[in-house]
Structure formats: structure tokens, C-alpha cells
Amino acid sequence: MTGTLLFQSLVLGVLLGGLYALLAAGLTLYFGVMRVVMIAHSAFLILAAYLAWYFHEQTGIDPLLSLVVTVPLFFAVGVGMQRLLITRLRPVTLTMMSVLLTFAVALFIEGMIGFVWSGTQRRIQLPYSGDSIEFFGAQIAVVKLVAFGLAALSLGLLYLLLKHSRFGQALRATIQHREAAQLVGIRTDRVAGYGFGIGLATAAIGGTALSLDATIYPSLHWHWIGPLMAIIVVGGLGSIPGAALAAMVLGIGQSLLQVPLGTTWAQTIFYVALFATLMLRPQGFFGGRLAQRF
Amino acid sequence: MSLATAPRNRRRRGLAAGASLAAAALVLTACSDDGAGSDEGAGEDDPIVIGISLPLTGDFSEPGKGVQRGYEAWAQFLNEDGGLLGRQVELKILDDQSNADRVVQDYEALIAQDQVDLVFGPFSTRLVVPSARVAEEYGMLFVEPAGAAAEVFEQGFENLFYAAPAVADDHYNYLADYILAMPDGERPETVAVASMDDPFAQGTAYGLRDKLADGGLEIVVDEVYPPNTTDFAPIAAKIDDSDADMVIGGTQYQDAVNLIVSLQQLDYQPEMAAFSTAPTNPEFASAIGDKTEGILSPTGYTETASYPSNVEFVERYTELHGNPPGEDEANAYTTGQVVAAAVEAVGCAEQGECQQQLVDWLHSNEVDTVVGPLSWDETGKPQGAHLIQQYVDGEIQIVLPEDAMEAELVFPKPAW
Q1: Is the ipTM reported for this complex over the cut 0.85?
Q2: Residues in chain B closer than 8 A to A217 (CB atoms)
Q3: Tens digit of pLDDT for each residue in A25-52?
Q4: pTM of the model
Q5: Domains in chain B, ordered, with CATH?
Q6: Nearest CA among A207, A202, A199 for reference residue A224
Q7: What span, in angstroms and rounded, lies between the C-alpha atoms of A218 and A216?
Q8: Distance, in angstroms, between A197 CA and closest chain B CA?
Q9: CB contact under 8 A, A219 and B58
């Protein structure tokens, strides 16, 4: 093992952590605003990746431009899904039933992707797919850098939106205490709908970023949902900065552990972290008073 | 009392009569089955039903669909030519979702409930082993297109036959011989191996790895990754860091593509690169941006092979699909040919004793197929080695062995 390899792994870990952070942010947002466990999040992620691939396939234009369509589309689908499906669940059993409901949605999406585009494994080929930039001895793939940049930018925007806009304040108030938010005049139903839409919009961005550097197939989403769920629990359910931090830590951890342990064992870091969190600090390591109430 | 018992007796007698009628009917049907045989009388119009479970979704969906195309082409061509034993064949294909539990359920259902006449195997060792066990329990002949790892033949299966030229460990034999025959100082000295945690993928890669290690080459990286791995950058980083002269990938499809792209992103340039399965896939070249030059891959099948049934198969298949068949399609077709040869020779296709006769016939005979003449040892292991192909001038061509060569092996491999 050399220093270069360690540094290279660290860089790869940061790049991977960035993508995890964006995806986990969306997932934790659903839980925050709605107490919904959104199993279909990664299915939407793959759907977005397929849309980016299809867009590139049909037009030959850079898949990043598909965001212009997919982000508003996913936002609308998210709002629609919250208003039409999630709110029909009884509040008492909402969290548990949302697992079933979104599981069904995930299966539906996977099936539809397979139906429309077949199970053939797809990959976007760009002129810069194999290119990389030298960075202090480490090679950074351009596509990974673009994906990371996209993730960082969207997370930054999400942060600004939540911290510095009236809507963001309303959303955070809804996350913190729904009844109190209602008492001060926030229309929590509408806010929750928009929150759900924003969560799904992160899946659109994440999926497009993913499509730049991954071979995609309909059942790929099952490989993503496990680590993402672990990340949001470690980060503290409902806490976006917590999810982002946990994603970074676990992403880098996975990448570094791969050097001595190999791929198989490095994957277990998510589940080890999950168990450790549940045993030692069930409310999560970074913020998140929310989970204490469950 | 007597008044009360009389009707009961009568009823009982009626019951007995009914029972014996039913029994007679059963005996009669049984007789007609035995006597007239299934190729005459009532059975003549009935198609021969072949039960198959394939991974049409999930991890193996890509090759699974290839196998499906091969089976369907076989059935269609056979039916156009008049069928098997004068009967049409009908395929009953279920989707096991690449799941080993599902595949067991599927074959149980096909054999016990649907009473299919014959079964064909699924794709890949992970699914072949559990399903072969089911077939073995029911005494069914089990010819399979894709279970090539050593463990398939270590289970003591007596009804299993692998319908391809060689098992996984022997795929790279020609390449291993070629490398070891190179003069010292010229041949690669260090080798990096990365393989999916999958019996078939590991079989191919480790067959070559072990032969090279025995020949004095140094194995500097030996990585195993689970089948659900999608991020290959860390493995590529390790291989790049070792700066090995040669890289061997025990791969299926998406893992090879992702690993190669990751290696390209790190600007790792080996002298020799060999990957199982993926390079023979028609999607492969475009998936890695046509930077394929010099990539080696073993193949059990090539459309250009001149075996008589292959020439016909390629022509008809191309007419049907607009593109020539790949290895998965060919192996599936071979499975059909092997079973058909046995059925024609023995003259039966149904559950029961017939299956054992089919098994016995295959153990003692050679079958001409699209991948050449096949024969098997007592474990069902075919007796041969795979051709080695390489991307030369943008096309995948046979480079080893010499008597089948379409192009000279390129070494060292051009940069990708």
C-alpha cells in the first residue's frame, strides 16, 4: 500500500460522499416533513438516470441538460405523490405504511423501466467519459468531478433555500413541530407537499449525476437504498446537515476501508455504522432530535 | 334396521362401481400412453412442453434474455422443420429474477405441477446448481447452457450436462499456454486480478491466475467484489497503484464495463487485459467508448465458426433478428440441439423412465452442435477449451489457438 493509493482512495471517497450526501439529503427531507420512509427514492434516482440516458440517446446533447426537464418534472411528481398518495395514509400508522406504499412505488418504477427500456444495461458514453485530471498525484475522473460539483451545488442551494427563505423557514418549522407550525399560520400540508417535491428533485439531480459514470439497469436502485437509509439514520433522521455529514464520513470510510479490507467487507461499514448508531445514539450522531420521539 | 341399511348398501355399491370405472379409465389412459406411445394417437397433436426458468430481470437479466432468444430461436427453427419426433415443441419460460430461491420454486412448479416433458437449464452457476438439484430429485435430464464453474461438477449430479466446449477453469487455457511460452523479459511479469464473487467469474479468472502463478508470474493484486458492486473506482485505484503488467477481470458484464472505464479514468495502461464474458457482448464496445483495442476474452462460440449446423443457425437467426447470435444465444441453442439429439435417438420425450434413457444416451455419445462436437465425462463436464478472442482493428477476432486464428494476437496491447 502506498501513499498515492491512500490519497487516491481519499479523493474517491470524497467524490462518492458528495453524491451520497445529495441523495441522503432528499431521503431525510421526506422523513423530516412527513415522517415518511421513502423506499422509492433510489428508484426515482435510477429513473432520472434512465431519463438522462434516453435524452442523450435521442438528442446527442449532454445528459446534464436533461435536468431542465427532469428537475421540474420530479418536483411536480413529488408534490403529486404527497398530495394524492401519502396523505391518504392514516397518520397513526403513517411511517410504517409509507414503507409499504413506497416499496410498491419502487417495484412499479423498476417494472416500468424494464418494460419501456428493457433490462439491457445502459451506459452513457461522453467524449470525456474516460478523461481525468491530475490532482497532487491522484487522478480525478472528469465525470466524477462533474457529479460531485452538481451534488455540492444542489446541496448549497438547498441549504440557502432552507436557511434564508420564508419557505425554508416554514419547512423547517414543519419539520421541528408540525402543530406549532400550524398554530403560527403555516399551511403545513402545502409545505409538506413542496418538501416532498424538493426531495424528489434531489433524486433527479442525483440520478443525472449518477448516469454520467455508471452502468444502469432497472434493479440497480436496490443497491442504493440500503446505504442511503443507513446514512440518514446515522446522521439523525430529518437532519439535512447530519445526512450530508454522515454521507461524507461513510463515503470516505468505505473508500478507505477498501484498501485493506477489500470491496466485500468495506460495504459493511454502512450497516456497522447503522447498528452502532441504534445501540449507542438512536437519535443519530449529527443533530436530529426528531428520532427521539419515535 | 334392514330398511335403513339397504339404501346405504346400494349407495356403497354405487360408489364402488364408480371407483372401479374411474380406475379402469385410469388404467386405459395409462395403457394408451404406454402402448401407442406419445408420438402417436392422442399424444400426436400435443406439443412437447419444455420447462425453463431464466433470469429475465435482476442481476443476470442481460445474459438471461440472450439465453431466452437462443431457446426461442431453437424452438422456432425446429418447429418450422417439423418439430421433434413429429411433435411441435413449446417452451414454458418463467422469470426467476436472478434469485436462487425463485429458480428452485420455478423448476419444482414446472416439473411437478405443469408436468413438462423436458427441462432446460437457467443461466449461470449460481442458479444452475440449485435448479439442477431439483431436476436430479425428479430424475429429469438437465442440460444447461451456462453453469461452467467447478462446483457444478462437484455436486455429484448424474443428470447434468453442460452444453458448451469447456468449463470455466479451462476457458483461458490457450492464453495461459501462450503467455508461458513467451520468452522471459518479454512476457508480462506482474498480474492484477479482480473477480466478482461468483463461481463462474472466479472460475475463469482463477483458472488463468493459477496457471500463470505456477508459471512464475507474480500476482500483485487479487481482489474479490460482491455481485452488487457498482463503484469500481477503488478497485481500479488498487490495480493502478500496483502498476501490474497484466490485468485479469473475472467479470460478467456491468462490472467489466465499470472497471475498464475506471481504469481508463486513472490512465492505467496494462500490456495485456483479459476480461471474461463482457467483451463478447454486442453492447460492450459502445459502453466503454470504443476504447476496446487489445482487450482479450475467451469465448465458447463465434458466429464465424464453420460447423455445418452453425452456418445454418447464424443465417436463420440473422434473418430473424437482424443481427447474428451471441454466445448466450448460441449456448442456449446448443442446449436445445443436445437435448433434441438425445430425444431423436432414444425416441421419447416425457417424464419417467424416458429421462434416464436420455441421460444414458448422452453419456455415451457425441453430439454435433453449433459450438462443435461435444462429449461429456461422467460429471457432465465437457471435454474442450475455449477460443481466445481479442479486439484487433476495432473488431473482436479469434487469436488463439493458431488453427482457428482470424488475426495475430496483439502484444503489448495499445493504450486505451
Answers
A1: no
A2: 61-62, 254
A3: 889 888 888 888 999 999 999 999 999 9
A4: 0.75
A5: 43-166+305-374 (3.40.50.2300), 170-299+387-404 (3.40.50.2300)
A6: A207
A7: 7
A8: 27
A9: yes
